[in-house]
Amino acid sequence: MLRILTGNKIKEVDSLEFESIIKEYKALVIDIGTGEGEFIYKKARQDKEVMYIGIDTSADSMLQYSVKSAKRPEKGGIKNIMFVVANAEDLPDTLSNTADKIFINLPWGSLRDGIIKGEHSFLSGIEKIAKENATLDIYVSYCGLYEKQEIENRQLPALTVSYLCNNLKARYKKYGINIVHISVLDNEGLKKIETRWAKKLGYGKKRDVFYLKCKIQK
């Protein structure tokens, strides 16, 4: 079952109902750790032929854009968006083999840790929800200059291209997730990611943001 936040209410949807909702769309995009949901809301408004799903553990975080999406079209309402209340470590089976594209934008806390350490609970979930040849885009950033205590407390590795290439690639590969491109963005690149958090970081202190483009081949 999926726990879907529609407006300000949570509704449970089974696999059959979910399939009937998404079948009319040409593709499905999932944003894991969507937070407020601003990123997928803007994406959904730009392409009405694609279904966009935001996943977050906090229904309260997604409430603003869930309510906005449920309004009449002239008030900003859209049909091709869904907000799912779920844990990234235990993604619902209903989503299995549905995603054509997956985003993880500037994760924090346990999601960030799992992604950057290549933990089974997170990578197996990504593998589960992805279709064959789905793409996965990850933007991640933390810095010893500004988050030293966080890095020490969470035992995070130094975030470098060397670590991503020499350590993370092999871990991802075990789950059919092939890292095909790695690049480093600056603050100007951060500003182009359509989330409030990205904009805040982009206009803040200078930092590097690492972008991983992946192809999923099970």
Written account of the structure:
The chain is of the alpha/beta class and 218 residues long. The chain has a single domain, classed as Vaccinia Virus protein VP39 (Rossmann fold, 3-Layer(aba) Sandwich), CATH 3.40.50.150. 36% of the residues lie in helices and 29% in strands. It is built from 9 helices and 9 strands. Strands 2-1-5-4-3-6-7-9-8 form a 9-stranded mixed beta sheet, sandwiched between helices. The protein is globular and about 45 Å long.
Keywords:
single chain; 218 residues; alpha/beta; Rossmann fold; nine-stranded mixed β-sheet; 9 helices; 9 strands; globular
Unreliable runs, pLDDT <50, ≥5 residues? none
The major β-sheet equals: 9 strands, mixed
Largest sheet, spatial ordering of strands: 2-1-5-4-3-6-7-9-8
Which range does the strand content fall in? 25-35%
How would you state the average pLDDT, rounded?
93
Q: What's the N-to-C terminus distance?
A: 24 Å
Number of domains: 1
| Cα-atom radius of gyration | 17 Å
CATH superfamily: Vaccinia Virus protein VP39
What is the CATH topology?
Rossmann fold
Count helical runs.
9
Q: Given the C-alpha coordinates, what overall shape results?
A: globular
Q: CATH class, anyone?
A: Alpha Beta
Indicate the topology.
Blueprint: E1 2-6, E2 9-13, H1 15-22, E3 27-32, H2 38-46, E4 50-56, H3 59-69, E5 81-85, E6 99-105, H4 109-117, H5 120-129, E7 130-140, H6 148-154, H7 161-173, E8 177-185, H8 187-191, H9 196-202, E9 209-216
Parallel strand pairs: 3-4, 3-6, 4-5, 6-7
Antiparallel strand pairs: 1-2, 1-5, 7-9, 8-9
